[in-house]
Amino acid sequence: MKGRLGPGMMIAADLISGQVYENTEVKKRVALSHPYGKWVQENMRSLKAVNFLSGTVAENDAILRRQQAFGYSSEDVQMVIETMASQGKEPTFCMGDDIPLAILSQRPHMLYDYFKQRFAQVTNPAIDPLREGLVMSLEVNIGKRQNILEVGPENASQVILSSPVLNEGELDLLLKDAQLKPQLLPTFFDIHKGVDGSLEKTLYRLCEAADEAVQNGCQLLVLSDRSDELEATRPAIPILLAVGAVHQHLIQNGLRMSASIIVDTAQCFSTHQFACLIGYGASAVCPYLALETCRQWRLSTKTVNLMRNGKMPTVTIEQAQKNSLQGQYNSTTAVKAGLRKILSKMGISLLSSYCGAQIFEIYGLGKEVVDLAFCGSISSVGGLTFDELARETLSFWVKAFSEDTAKRLENFGFIQFRPGGEYHGNNPEMSKLLHKAIRQKNENAFSVYQQHLANRPVNVLRDLVEFKSDRAPIPVGKVEPAVSIVQRFCTGGMSLGAISRETHEAIAIAMNRIGGKSNSGEGGEDPIRWKPLTDVVDGYSPTLPHLKGLQNGDTATSAIKQVASGRFGVTPTFLVNADQLEIKIAQGAKPGEGGQLPGKKVSAYIARLRNSKPGVPLISPPPHHDIYSIEDLAQLIYDLHQVNPKAKVSVKLVAEAGIGTVASGVAKGNADVIQDAHFDGLASVSLYVAVNIMNLSFFG
């Protein structure tokens, strides 16, 4: 035999007979050793697809009451659920996450907000869900998992789900499956005797009930917060907490492989929430209130009129629910597409590998909560106890029973700034004070702006940190002068497609004047910016006619030129006109994802710089398709040094637990600079889940 092993191939050596078997023979022998095909045909079943409901189950007032009780806001409904229902895709935004962490917020949050998704960088690269979707699958198996070392027909006794997202009809089929012996477990806790201790005690009882059911032969546990009537003294347990607690309890008692967990909940409508539930043990989710909200939206007079007048794409009730959760026609959309993206960010191709993997970082839950329900997850700081978590849950629940219950959902202001809503770092008052200080060129006005920033609410963990020193302050006259310090300032990488040509060039000129470095971002740069201006008259230049206040000798070139995964605009002349070359592995606004520029932003000018065509959406892949190891990265660094020997090569990573290990590998790849990006960066376009959930922020 000659050759070498490829992916999925094997060889075997029989030490007794002295025979060596190649790949085909090995697999043939194993396949013929037992009647696997017959076992699968007789025992394995696929869940039949069931049509979505064609009308709302409850009245509008009852739907509103449930939405209030389970923590929905008007932003969640209008900007997330309705967008997915009408367009079949997740909403996108262009700003970073500038609201406080959930544990630091003055407003109550759903439990999911305390969890941040993790992502892969360099050593375990992301998968491209668009170009490599062939190797990805959202199939999940339901039922008891047998010992794989004991071969028998019972190993094939599974129910196959094509997706982890179930509608009401599909859940009913599973609940009626006699072979699975399903057990429905309500997830409510009683507070009529007081809040203290109620949530924790109920969780222990829930775990014991699950344990007993599995020992009695149950192969499917269904955790449900569905109820015909909501009761003021019986709030729902945060469903993620219930799933995590049952999952961990069964693991500790050696019963986890004996049953699957399915969730029937009102507390799930976004891809991050689905990912959390699946990541902490759920095999599938039926988001009944999100489906009911889709139906309510489609049947509303406003939606009907918009569709009739051609101001909104026409979709049926069936299509609206498919768009938001499963898929329209033959294309995967919304939640299914979102889950693929989340898997791909960790380099995972199968949902079954993500189920129970707990690939999250926790910010703001106490040790007792983490140990019970999320054991094994990274939790850098402490936080809420069970009683505090119960009170936060109640802050939503009581709104559904208040005498002056609002006739519409409250806007918490978590996504967009609104007066009286959640605090945003980038707020109108801050912007006005900064503009005033710049336009007036007044130190007093700038001091007011500085005072505003100093008095802002605690936003991130670094706001809680103070310098502690027993040394006297050094006189200002003895420290490095400001003119020297600013030469080490660098701007973040933002393409001109994201912030406009005028802004991009103005930033570059300003940084060049002070001796700092601006960053081109992804997408190339106009060659006219690489030479100093010599034609300025009265602050204007024919070379850059859209700018004012120019001076002869100004240069609009970006000192740092970025090389991203799409390689848009990256040419040898682009590279040689840089002082520093930055390889963007990830960015803080959306780690694990590539750059996105909508077609409407791709003008003729931008298309020319990116060597593309106007109006064509430009999406960079999540990974660099030529970087799958430190050695690959080292090769790219070497190549860039060959093109521009005088330029330093930097590698942009994003902060996460364990980044030190990744950074040490990058350093061994001969990177000159390693940039550690944080959560509050911006992006031209980023998915809602990436902006609000992917951003890790210990000191970011």
TrEMBL record:
Residues 2-39 form the Glutamine amidotransferase type-2 domain. It comes from the Eukaryota. InterPro entries: Aldolase_TIM, ET-N_metabolism_enzyme, GATase_2_dom, Glu_synth_centr_N, Glu_synthdom, Ntn_hydrolases_N. Belongs to the glutamate synthase family. Coiled coil: none annotated. GO terms for biological process: ammonia assimilation cycle; glutamate biosynthetic process. Residues 65-365 form the Glutamate synthase central-N domain. This is glutamate synthase (ferredoxin). SUPFAM superfamilies: FMN-linked oxidoreductases. GO terms for molecular function: 3 iron, 4 sulfur cluster binding; glutamate synthase (ferredoxin) activity; metal ion binding. Keywords: 3Fe-4S, Amino-acid biosynthesis, Flavoprotein, FMN, Glutamate biosynthesis, Glutamine amidotransferase, Iron, Iron-sulfur, Metal-binding, Oxidoreductase. Its cofactor is FMN; [3Fe-4S] cluster. It comes from Prunus yedoensis var. nudiflora. Its EC number is 1.4.7.1. Pathway: Amino-acid biosynthesis; L-glutamate biosynthesis via GLT pathway; L-glutamate from 2-oxoglutarate and L-glutamine (ferredoxin route): step 1/1; Energy metabolism; nitrogen metabolism; Nitrogen metabolism. Residues 425-677 form the Glutamate synthase domain.
